[in-house]
């Protein structure tokens, strides 16, 4: 069954997650119509190879043309229209940057695998549960409801201001008419009656001015309360969900909803500002003793401007954190002189701002890091925000050609840094711009989550461990001295994040038994790990007992082994992997002779071995294991073929394959047959 077929069978809550990452960058129609072809291409390799990406883009357009021919014969007008639009969109968007679509499709396929893995897990972890809190969903609905009510109130106040303007114009006309009369005419009874009517009208004007100012004050108060409480919490929640998604967790959404709220509030505040300007106009034409406008208007205008400043400052966010296209599963780890991408969005989407806001990117601006190393950004580091590049029309800017370059240090300290020093140094990518709108000038600044700078790809695993630990342990967006005294992490949450590393990187997460084995390896004993606190040193710096490597280096080597050599077997769920030798024997001892299982080596980095059970003539059970296969041997021969062709010398010197059933009782050829190459290897 294709991956897309499996996706379509998911429950609605998982399908909603899938829906979030398909847009005009890669339309779902194409994913659906070309499912088999798309899954058979190596998009990840193409994302790092422009020539390969160019060929794949050409082939993708050919596939779309073939679908167009097919639906044209079926006279499916709607599908014909959509496919023509999509073909034009793909051609225009990626003709000059074919690697970009390779990155997008690779990411979509990886997210599908992560969601499929999450759907197959019987229990949600503590972090994922916290992200799907029903209280959070209720608050989101309340925010949207209140924003809509505020917008309606501001529009209703517009009508009150218009009524006040009409009333004052009538008063002006009648008053000027009386003033133009001769003095003798002003003493007539009729005029005196008109003067009484004008006094009553002035009283009404005074009442309506007070009423309008009161309504404006209530709208401002409602906006203030919403921004101070629920909207701030919503934005912080989104930023926390982004942190978790960056380390392999559930895909985060909700930014479009926040954009809608921010935009409506900005529109309401500018509307209130215009109402206050209109009141100022009315004031210049008519004032009187006890007039409320000169007393209340300056305070209200000051409050409106203050709220606009705060709203704009909070609306400038990093939509997609810095990431090297060559390592899409390892965001916030940047290598010197290698390009990275980062995307920013202004959540206040006003047409007047399109192409009017220029954003400048810098590194470690006004920040004292714990490092002696200093960097500059090379490449295009100033760009204008616009609504044309994003599929959803958001006001955003994406930097695609930034490169960090290390400045030479006269202190010469770089060579003295220990193996963990570089990967525990945190740096900050900062962005600044200025908004000039309707007489307001607002300076905006924001920063990425902390990044780790590496100069050699061998530093990537430990750098990624730092990113995991930071974003698991804190929601502080800018604690660059975090690793001066890194806090311990709750083991239950860490295990959940480790499972995400497998689901996001190699398409299948870890089950409870596999996680138990990792917990025992980290703790050294079998106890309940729900409240166990694990130190950073034990995770990434101290060697495992009797070994020359750390827990994280061991785990990262297994991820690399799966990715490069046994990925299909892992995704099918046929690699138990994380099981100790003792547990392995308990599982196999009562099984049919020839039953075997696959596990990762605990003594060799990036090794996989298999053990089978046999029975002697006297009925005793015996176990046989092989030396672990590492990437060197697996590069020469696929692992499925090794299992198919493995033989030992049996009685009468006859070679025989002892591997009959994959644990618990799956015939070997049924499990691995589809992964065999054509010809057996003796």
UniProtKB/TrEMBL annotation:
<feature type="domain" description="SH2">
    <location>
        <begin position="570"/>
        <end position="672"/>
    </location>
</feature>
<dbReference type="GO" id="GO:0000981">
    <property type="term" value="F:DNA-binding transcription factor activity, RNA polymerase II-specific"/>
</dbReference>
<dbReference type="InterPro" id="IPR046991">
    <property type="entry name" value="STAT4_CC"/>
</dbReference>
<dbReference type="GO" id="GO:0051093">
    <property type="term" value="P:negative regulation of developmental process"/>
</dbReference>
<keyword id="KW-0727">SH2 domain</keyword>
<keyword id="KW-0175">Coiled coil</keyword>
<keyword id="KW-0488">Methylation</keyword>
<dbReference type="InterPro" id="IPR036860">
    <property type="entry name" value="SH2_dom_sf"/>
</dbReference>
<keyword id="KW-0597">Phosphoprotein</keyword>
<dbReference type="InterPro" id="IPR029839">
    <property type="entry name" value="STAT4_DBD"/>
</dbReference>
<dbReference type="InterPro" id="IPR015988">
    <property type="entry name" value="STAT_TF_CC"/>
</dbReference>
<keyword id="KW-0007">Acetylation</keyword>
<dbReference type="InterPro" id="IPR008967">
    <property type="entry name" value="p53-like_TF_DNA-bd_sf"/>
</dbReference>
<dbReference type="InterPro" id="IPR000980">
    <property type="entry name" value="SH2"/>
</dbReference>
<dbReference type="GO" id="GO:0007259">
    <property type="term" value="P:cell surface receptor signaling pathway via JAK-STAT"/>
</dbReference>
<dbReference type="InterPro" id="IPR013799">
    <property type="entry name" value="STAT_TF_prot_interaction"/>
</dbReference>
<dbReference type="GO" id="GO:0060333">
    <property type="term" value="P:type II interferon-mediated signaling pathway"/>
</dbReference>
<dbReference type="GO" id="GO:0060337">
    <property type="term" value="P:type I interferon-mediated signaling pathway"/>
</dbReference>
<keyword id="KW-0804">Transcription</keyword>
<dbReference type="Pfam" id="PF02865">
    <property type="entry name" value="STAT_int"/>
</dbReference>
<dbReference type="Pfam" id="PF01017">
    <property type="entry name" value="STAT_alpha"/>
</dbReference>
<dbReference type="GO" id="GO:0005737">
    <property type="term" value="C:cytoplasm"/>
</dbReference>
<dbReference type="Pfam" id="PF02864">
    <property type="entry name" value="STAT_bind"/>
</dbReference>
<dbReference type="InterPro" id="IPR036535">
    <property type="entry name" value="STAT_N_sf"/>
</dbReference>
<protein>
    <recommendedName>
        <fullName>Signal transducer and activator of transcription</fullName>
    </recommendedName>
</protein>
<keyword id="KW-0013">ADP-ribosylation</keyword>
<keyword id="KW-0963">Cytoplasm</keyword>
<keyword id="KW-0238">DNA-binding</keyword>
<keyword id="KW-1017">Isopeptide bond</keyword>
<dbReference type="GO" id="GO:0042981">
    <property type="term" value="P:regulation of apoptotic process"/>
</dbReference>
<dbReference type="InterPro" id="IPR001217">
    <property type="entry name" value="STAT"/>
</dbReference>
<dbReference type="InterPro" id="IPR012345">
    <property type="entry name" value="STAT_TF_DNA-bd_N"/>
</dbReference>
<dbReference type="Pfam" id="PF21354">
    <property type="entry name" value="STAT_linker"/>
</dbReference>
<dbReference type="InterPro" id="IPR013800">
    <property type="entry name" value="STAT_TF_alpha"/>
</dbReference>
<dbReference type="GO" id="GO:0003677">
    <property type="term" value="F:DNA binding"/>
</dbReference>
<dbReference type="InterPro" id="IPR048988">
    <property type="entry name" value="STAT_linker"/>
</dbReference>
<keyword id="KW-0010">Activator</keyword>
<dbReference type="InterPro" id="IPR013801">
    <property type="entry name" value="STAT_TF_DNA-bd"/>
</dbReference>
<keyword id="KW-0539">Nucleus</keyword>
<dbReference type="GO" id="GO:0005654">
    <property type="term" value="C:nucleoplasm"/>
</dbReference>
<keyword id="KW-0805">Transcription regulation</keyword>
<dbReference type="GO" id="GO:0051607">
    <property type="term" value="P:defense response to virus"/>
</dbReference>
